[in-house]
Amino acid sequence: MQSPESPDVYDRATRWLHWASAVLVVGIFLLGWGAHWVPRGEPRMMVRSVHITLGAVLTLLLVVRIVWRRRHGVHLESSTSAMESLAVRLFHVLLYVAMIVMVTSGIVAVWFRGVNLFDWMTIPAFDPSNKPMRRLLVDIHEFVAYGLMGLTGLHVLFALWHQYRLKDGVMHRMWPPLHQE
Ligand code: HEM
Ligand code: HEM
Protein backbone atom coordinates (compact mmCIF):
# COMPACT_ATOMS: atom_id res chain seq x y z
CA MET A 1 0.00 0.00 0.00
CA GLN A 2 1.46 3.41 -0.87
CA SER A 3 0.66 6.66 0.77
CA PRO A 4 -1.17 8.88 -1.74
CA GLU A 5 0.50 12.10 -0.60
CA SER A 6 4.14 10.88 -0.70
CA PRO A 7 4.46 7.61 -2.64
CA ASP A 8 8.28 7.57 -2.57
CA VAL A 9 8.70 7.69 1.18
CA TYR A 10 7.95 5.12 3.88
CA ASP A 11 5.29 6.34 6.30
CA ARG A 12 6.42 8.03 9.51
CA ALA A 13 5.67 5.04 11.80
CA THR A 14 7.65 2.67 9.54
CA ARG A 15 10.60 5.07 9.59
CA TRP A 16 10.55 5.46 13.38
CA LEU A 17 10.27 1.72 13.85
CA HIS A 18 13.13 1.10 11.38
CA TRP A 19 15.56 3.52 13.02
CA ALA A 20 14.65 2.57 16.59
CA SER A 21 15.16 -1.14 15.80
CA ALA A 22 18.40 -0.38 13.91
CA VAL A 23 19.89 1.40 16.95
CA LEU A 24 18.64 -1.34 19.28
CA VAL A 25 19.97 -4.22 17.12
CA VAL A 26 23.48 -2.72 17.01
CA GLY A 27 23.46 -1.68 20.70
CA ILE A 28 22.17 -5.07 21.86
CA PHE A 29 24.81 -6.85 19.78
CA LEU A 30 27.62 -4.73 21.27
CA LEU A 31 26.34 -5.43 24.79
CA GLY A 32 26.03 -9.20 24.17
CA TRP A 33 29.42 -9.44 22.51
CA GLY A 34 31.15 -6.98 24.86
CA ALA A 35 29.97 -8.88 27.97
CA HIS A 36 32.88 -11.32 27.44
CA TRP A 37 35.33 -8.52 28.26
CA VAL A 38 33.50 -7.29 31.34
CA PRO A 39 34.70 -8.82 34.66
CA ARG A 40 32.59 -11.71 35.88
CA GLY A 41 30.21 -11.10 38.79
CA GLU A 42 28.19 -7.92 39.22
CA PRO A 43 29.62 -5.88 36.26
CA ARG A 44 28.88 -8.67 33.76
CA MET A 45 25.47 -9.34 35.29
CA MET A 46 24.61 -5.62 34.82
CA VAL A 47 25.69 -5.63 31.15
CA ARG A 48 23.70 -8.85 30.54
CA SER A 49 20.68 -7.34 32.31
CA VAL A 50 20.75 -4.26 30.04
CA HIS A 51 21.19 -6.60 27.02
CA ILE A 52 18.15 -8.66 28.02
CA THR A 53 16.00 -5.61 28.89
CA LEU A 54 16.76 -3.89 25.56
CA GLY A 55 16.19 -7.28 23.89
CA ALA A 56 12.70 -7.33 25.40
CA VAL A 57 12.07 -3.79 24.07
CA LEU A 58 13.27 -4.88 20.61
CA THR A 59 10.92 -7.89 20.76
CA LEU A 60 7.95 -5.57 21.35
CA LEU A 61 9.05 -3.17 18.60
CA LEU A 62 9.46 -6.05 16.19
CA VAL A 63 5.93 -7.30 16.85
CA VAL A 64 4.52 -3.76 16.40
CA ARG A 65 6.65 -3.31 13.25
CA ILE A 66 5.48 -6.54 11.63
CA VAL A 67 1.81 -5.93 12.48
CA TRP A 68 2.07 -2.31 11.25
CA ARG A 69 3.80 -3.39 8.04
CA ARG A 70 1.11 -5.97 7.27
CA ARG A 71 -1.86 -3.74 8.10
CA HIS A 72 -0.95 -0.11 7.31
CA GLY A 73 2.70 0.28 6.30
CA VAL A 74 3.84 1.73 2.98
CA HIS A 75 5.56 -0.93 0.81
CA LEU A 76 8.05 0.38 -1.72
CA GLU A 77 9.44 -1.65 -4.62
CA SER A 78 12.82 -1.24 -6.27
CA SER A 79 12.41 1.18 -9.18
CA THR A 80 14.89 -0.53 -11.54
CA SER A 81 13.82 -4.10 -12.43
CA ALA A 82 11.53 -6.92 -11.29
CA MET A 83 14.62 -9.06 -10.52
CA GLU A 84 16.16 -6.39 -8.32
CA SER A 85 12.84 -5.83 -6.63
CA LEU A 86 12.64 -9.54 -5.77
CA ALA A 87 16.25 -9.64 -4.52
CA VAL A 88 15.71 -6.59 -2.30
CA ARG A 89 12.48 -8.05 -0.94
CA LEU A 90 14.20 -11.38 -0.15
CA PHE A 91 17.05 -9.57 1.56
CA HIS A 92 14.62 -7.61 3.74
CA VAL A 93 12.75 -10.83 4.58
CA LEU A 94 16.11 -12.33 5.63
CA LEU A 95 16.74 -9.37 7.94
CA TYR A 96 13.31 -9.83 9.54
CA VAL A 97 13.85 -13.61 9.91
CA ALA A 98 17.28 -13.07 11.53
CA MET A 99 15.80 -10.54 13.98
CA ILE A 100 12.96 -12.94 14.84
CA VAL A 101 15.42 -15.83 15.42
CA MET A 102 17.54 -13.54 17.63
CA VAL A 103 14.76 -12.47 19.94
CA THR A 104 13.20 -15.95 20.07
CA SER A 105 16.49 -17.74 20.83
CA GLY A 106 17.33 -15.01 23.39
CA ILE A 107 14.04 -15.46 25.22
CA VAL A 108 14.32 -19.26 25.18
CA ALA A 109 17.97 -19.01 26.34
CA VAL A 110 16.88 -16.86 29.31
CA TRP A 111 14.26 -19.45 30.13
CA PHE A 112 16.73 -22.37 29.95
CA ARG A 113 19.77 -20.84 31.64
CA GLY A 114 17.91 -18.66 34.18
CA VAL A 115 19.12 -15.10 34.86
CA ASN A 116 19.63 -12.60 37.63
CA LEU A 117 18.26 -9.28 36.32
CA PHE A 118 19.93 -6.24 37.95
CA ASP A 119 20.16 -8.17 41.26
CA TRP A 120 16.46 -7.33 41.48
CA MET A 121 14.65 -10.20 39.82
CA THR A 122 15.69 -13.81 39.31
CA ILE A 123 14.31 -15.93 36.51
CA PRO A 124 15.08 -19.51 37.56
CA ALA A 125 16.49 -21.98 35.03
CA PHE A 126 13.73 -24.12 33.57
CA ASP A 127 15.89 -27.26 33.67
CA PRO A 128 19.30 -26.61 35.33
CA SER A 129 20.50 -30.14 34.58
CA ASN A 130 20.06 -29.73 30.82
CA LYS A 131 23.44 -28.13 30.06
CA PRO A 132 23.65 -29.37 26.42
CA MET A 133 20.33 -27.69 25.55
CA ARG A 134 21.48 -24.46 27.18
CA ARG A 135 24.76 -24.60 25.24
CA LEU A 136 22.90 -25.27 21.96
CA LEU A 137 20.54 -22.32 22.48
CA VAL A 138 23.35 -19.93 23.32
CA ASP A 139 25.35 -21.19 20.31
CA ILE A 140 22.37 -20.59 17.98
CA HIS A 141 21.88 -17.15 19.53
CA GLU A 142 25.55 -16.27 19.07
CA PHE A 143 25.85 -17.74 15.55
CA VAL A 144 22.76 -15.94 14.23
CA ALA A 145 23.95 -12.72 15.94
CA TYR A 146 27.08 -12.74 13.74
CA GLY A 147 24.94 -13.56 10.70
CA LEU A 148 22.62 -10.66 11.47
CA MET A 149 25.59 -8.31 11.82
CA GLY A 150 26.90 -9.50 8.43
CA LEU A 151 23.51 -8.86 6.81
CA THR A 152 23.29 -5.46 8.52
CA GLY A 153 26.75 -4.55 7.22
CA LEU A 154 25.71 -5.45 3.66
CA HIS A 155 22.42 -3.58 4.08
CA VAL A 156 24.28 -0.42 5.16
CA LEU A 157 26.75 -0.80 2.27
CA PHE A 158 23.85 -1.09 -0.21
CA ALA A 159 22.23 2.00 1.33
CA LEU A 160 25.51 3.95 1.01
CA TRP A 161 26.00 2.69 -2.56
CA HIS A 162 22.54 3.98 -3.51
CA GLN A 163 23.14 7.27 -1.72
CA TYR A 164 26.63 8.17 -2.97
CA ARG A 165 27.11 6.17 -6.20
CA LEU A 166 23.70 5.71 -7.80
CA LYS A 167 22.28 8.89 -6.23
CA ASP A 168 18.77 7.49 -6.78
CA GLY A 169 17.18 8.71 -3.56
CA VAL A 170 16.60 5.26 -2.00
CA MET A 171 18.03 6.54 1.30
CA HIS A 172 15.42 9.32 1.31
CA ARG A 173 12.65 6.72 1.36
CA MET A 174 13.74 5.85 4.90
CA TRP A 175 15.24 9.23 5.86
CA PRO A 176 13.49 11.95 3.85
CA PRO A 177 14.82 15.52 3.86
CA LEU A 178 12.90 17.61 6.41
CA HIS A 179 11.02 19.69 3.80
CA GLN A 180 9.62 16.50 2.22
CA GLU A 181 7.96 15.32 5.49
C1 HEM B 1 22.92 3.03 9.31
C2 HEM B 1 22.18 1.94 9.24
C3 HEM B 1 21.04 1.74 8.25
C4 HEM B 1 20.73 2.40 7.09
C5 HEM B 1 21.48 3.55 6.44
C6 HEM B 1 19.51 1.80 6.56
C7 HEM B 1 18.84 2.20 5.43
C8 HEM B 1 17.68 1.65 4.92
C9 HEM B 1 16.97 2.10 3.75
C10 HEM B 1 17.41 3.26 2.86
C11 HEM B 1 15.90 1.30 3.56
C12 HEM B 1 14.86 1.36 2.41
C13 HEM B 1 15.30 0.41 1.36
C14 HEM B 1 14.36 0.34 0.16
O1 HEM B 1 13.31 0.97 0.15
O2 HEM B 1 14.70 -0.39 -0.80
C15 HEM B 1 15.90 0.31 4.64
C16 HEM B 1 14.95 -0.68 4.82
C17 HEM B 1 15.04 -1.68 5.77
N1 HEM B 1 15.99 -1.77 6.77
FE1 HEM B 1 17.55 -0.51 7.08
N2 HEM B 1 19.13 0.76 7.39
C18 HEM B 1 20.04 0.71 8.43
C19 HEM B 1 20.04 -0.18 9.47
C20 HEM B 1 19.20 -1.28 9.57
C21 HEM B 1 19.30 -2.31 10.57
C22 HEM B 1 20.35 -2.38 11.71
C23 HEM B 1 18.30 -3.20 10.33
C24 HEM B 1 17.95 -4.46 11.08
C25 HEM B 1 18.81 -5.40 11.28
C26 HEM B 1 17.56 -2.73 9.16
C27 HEM B 1 16.48 -3.37 8.60
C28 HEM B 1 15.76 -2.92 7.50
C29 HEM B 1 14.59 -3.59 6.94
C30 HEM B 1 13.99 -4.92 7.46
C31 HEM B 1 14.15 -2.80 5.88
C32 HEM B 1 12.93 -3.08 4.98
C33 HEM B 1 11.78 -2.23 5.46
C34 HEM B 1 10.45 -2.78 4.98
O3 HEM B 1 10.17 -2.77 3.78
O4 HEM B 1 9.70 -3.23 5.87
N3 HEM B 1 18.13 -1.56 8.73
N4 HEM B 1 17.00 0.55 5.45
C1 HEM C 1 19.05 -8.52 17.82
C2 HEM C 1 18.95 -8.99 19.05
C3 HEM C 1 20.08 -9.63 19.81
C4 HEM C 1 21.41 -9.74 19.50
C5 HEM C 1 22.15 -9.21 18.26
C6 HEM C 1 22.03 -10.50 20.57
C7 HEM C 1 23.38 -10.85 20.62
C8 HEM C 1 23.98 -11.57 21.62
C9 HEM C 1 25.39 -11.96 21.67
C10 HEM C 1 26.43 -11.63 20.59
C11 HEM C 1 25.59 -12.65 22.82
C12 HEM C 1 26.91 -13.27 23.30
C13 HEM C 1 26.86 -14.77 23.03
C14 HEM C 1 27.76 -15.58 23.94
O1 HEM C 1 28.10 -15.13 25.02
O2 HEM C 1 28.09 -16.71 23.57
C15 HEM C 1 24.32 -12.71 23.52
C16 HEM C 1 24.12 -13.33 24.73
C17 HEM C 1 22.91 -13.42 25.37
N1 HEM C 1 21.70 -12.89 24.93
FE1 HEM C 1 21.39 -11.87 23.23
N2 HEM C 1 21.08 -10.82 21.50
C18 HEM C 1 19.87 -10.30 21.07
C19 HEM C 1 18.65 -10.39 21.70
C20 HEM C 1 18.44 -11.03 22.91
C21 HEM C 1 17.16 -11.13 23.58
C22 HEM C 1 15.83 -10.60 23.04
C23 HEM C 1 17.37 -11.82 24.73
C24 HEM C 1 16.38 -12.21 25.78
C25 HEM C 1 15.32 -11.49 26.10
C26 HEM C 1 18.79 -12.16 24.79
C27 HEM C 1 19.39 -12.89 25.79
C28 HEM C 1 20.73 -13.23 25.86
C29 HEM C 1 21.34 -14.00 26.93
C30 HEM C 1 20.63 -14.59 28.14
C31 HEM C 1 22.70 -14.13 26.63
C32 HEM C 1 23.78 -14.82 27.46
C33 HEM C 1 24.00 -16.22 26.98
C34 HEM C 1 25.06 -16.95 27.81
O3 HEM C 1 26.23 -16.56 27.75
O4 HEM C 1 24.70 -17.89 28.53
N3 HEM C 1 19.41 -11.66 23.68
N4 HEM C 1 23.36 -12.07 22.76
Structure description:
The chain has 181 residues and is mainly alpha-helical. It is built from five helices and two strands; from the N terminus they run αααββαα. The chain has one domain (12-102, 144-180). Helices cover 70% and strands 3% of the residues. A two-stranded antiparallel ribbon has the order 1-2. Helix 1 (12-34) runs antiparallel to helix 2 and helix 2 crosses helix 3 (82-113). The radius of gyration is 19 Å and the shape is elongated. Bound molecules: protoporphyrin IX containing FE (2 copies).
List descriptors:
181 residues; mainly alpha; two-stranded antiparallel ribbon; disordered N terminus; binds protoporphyrin IX containing FE
Bound heterogens, unique:
protoporphyrin IX containing FE
Mean model confidence by pLDDT: 91
Total strands: the figure is: 2
Structural class, by secondary structure, is: mainly alpha
- Report the β-strand fraction as a percent range: under 5%
Low-confidence stretches: 1-6
In angstroms, what is the radius of gyration?
A: 19 Å
For the sheet with most strands, the description reads:
2 strands, antiparallel
Query: H/E element string?
Result: HHHEEHH
Count of folded domains: 1
Rough outline: elongated
Q: Strands across the major sheet, in which order?
A: 1-2
Number of helical elements = 5
Euclidean distance between termini CA atoms: 18 Å
Helix content: 55-70%
